[in-house]
């Protein structure tokens, strides 16, 4: 199918982009990599009358170190840039691993971190990484920007707390302590498909004891979520208890890719795997 007619604005600065959004009275949408938006437009799931293309905004694709050992990633950083960035690999190996599972190379070449977070698919890797890594999402708006904690950003499938005239400009990931172990596992029917379910974790240890853990679930809820019961169970009773608790943390849906029961089973199996890997890495 072909999209319905639309107007097109190409912004060359963030100010121009937010001014165009504000002037549209909530009618315009941002166009970034177009990898989710354009198919939805062609299927007429979306019939937005105005698009504000942000691809011409210089430096919005930068990946920079921050003073706390973390990274600031511009909204236009492509999936492929994250996948191949030495900074990402060095500071957030769990994110480096996750990027290999995002779609196919052609899509990774165009898709952006800002687009993925805004699109908010509950089975997408980058929203889950944002929740796992306690990301701060930095936005701009004609009336002033804000910082939104990833934990407060995702509201429902394909729904975030972004206002219609607000854009993501960057994502900040706070640095991890040296020696933090990590694990990432997902199950998809074919390589490059959206995951049926996925689990990721980071773990800190003191000798053989876990001192801190974060576990995030993907495709197992209507948004990416932290598995708080599993995190507590890991500290008190170890990996098997955490894996069993992750099954309860999950509130998955039934769909043609898998039943809710099957997804709960995946939550348990994948949690056991990621925690085993994360603890081994933390103990090295
Ligand atoms: C066949 C296929 C398979 C895929 N598989 C996966 C997968 O396995 N895992 C995965 O994570 N993703 C997958 N994707 C989605 C892909 O990662 C998209 O690139 C991503 O979801 C959207 O990024 P984009 O830059 O293309 O955004 P666009 O398509 O341009 O925009 C998506 C939405 O975000 C809004 N938006 C974009 N940028 C901003 C911004 N800076 N501020 C505010 N709003 C903004 C747009 O208005 C739109 O509503 C797949 C896509 C396809 C077509």
Describe this structure in words.
The protein is α+β, with helices and mostly antiparallel strands and 284 residues long. It has three domains: 7-53, Uridine Diphospho-n-acetylenolpyruvylglucosamine Reductase, domain 2 (2-Layer Sandwich); 63-173, Uridine Diphospho-n-acetylenolpyruvylglucosamine Reductase, domain 3 (2-Layer Sandwich), CATH 3.30.465; 181-283, Enolase-like, domain 1, CATH 3.30.390. The chain is built from twelve helices and 14 strands. Strands 4-5-10-6-7 form a five-stranded antiparallel β-sheet. Helix 10 (228-237) runs antiparallel to helix 11 and helix 11 runs antiparallel to helix 12 (260-283). The chain starts with 6 loop residues before the first strand and ends with a helix. 49% of the residues are buried. Flavin-adenine dinucleotide (FAD) binds at residues 29-37, 39, 75, 102-103, 107, 110-112, 114-116, 118-119, 124-126, 162, 167-168, 194.
Question: What would a concise description of this structure say?
Answer:
With 284 residues, the chain is an alpha+beta fold.
């Amino acid at each position: 199918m072909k999209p319905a007619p639309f107007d097109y604005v190409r912004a060359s600065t963030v100010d121009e982009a937010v001014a165009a959004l504000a002037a549209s009275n909530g009618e315009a949408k941002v166009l970034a990599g177009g990898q989710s938006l354009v198919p939805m437009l062609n299927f007429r799931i979306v019939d937005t009358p105005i698009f504000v293309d942000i691809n011409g905004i210089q430096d919005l694709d930068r990946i920079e170190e921050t003073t706390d050992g973390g990274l600031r990633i511009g909204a236009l950083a492509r999936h492929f840039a994250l996948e191949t960035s030495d900074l990402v690999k060095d500071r957030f190996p769990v994110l480096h691993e996750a990027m290999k599972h995002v779609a196919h190379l052609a899509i990774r070449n165009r898709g952006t971190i800002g687009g993925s977070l805004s699109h908010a698919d509950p089975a997408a890797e980058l929203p889950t990484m944002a929740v796992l890594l306690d990301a701060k999402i930095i936005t701009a708006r004609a009336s002033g920007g804000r910082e939104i904690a990833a934990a407060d950003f995702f509201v429902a499938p394909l729904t975030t707390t972004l206002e219609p005239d607000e854009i993501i400009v960057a994502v900040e990931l706070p640095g991890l302590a040296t020696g933090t172990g990590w694990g990432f596992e997902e199950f998809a029917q074919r390589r490059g498909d959206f995951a049926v379910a996925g689990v990721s974790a980071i773990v800190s240890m003191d000798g053989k004891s876990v001192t801190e853990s974060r576990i995030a679930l993907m495709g197992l809820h209507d948004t990416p979520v932290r598995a708080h019961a599993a995190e507590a169970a890991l500290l008190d009773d170890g990996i098997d208890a955490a894996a069993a608790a992750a099954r309860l943390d999950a509130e998955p849906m039934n769909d043609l890719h898998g039943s809710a029961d099957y997804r709960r089973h995946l939550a348990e199996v994948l949690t056991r795997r990621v925690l085993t890997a994360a603890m081994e890495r933390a103990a090295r």
